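#structure-requests
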Amino acid sequence: MAEEEILKEVWRNRDAFAKRHGYDLDAMVEELRRMERQSPNKLVDRSGEPMKKPRQRKRRPSKRRV
């Protein structure tokens, strides 16, 4: 039941955002990009640099008791 309420709130916020921008996709994208630039958090890495592969750990033999 709580999950349904969360989804309803997300949909209400999404619809309100779209309505504020006249359902204009270009306006919505520009606003989201503006919000991203102002955020102290890096939301999307657009540097174009390839992602580094994570180091693989060496697996230790398991110490399972039989």
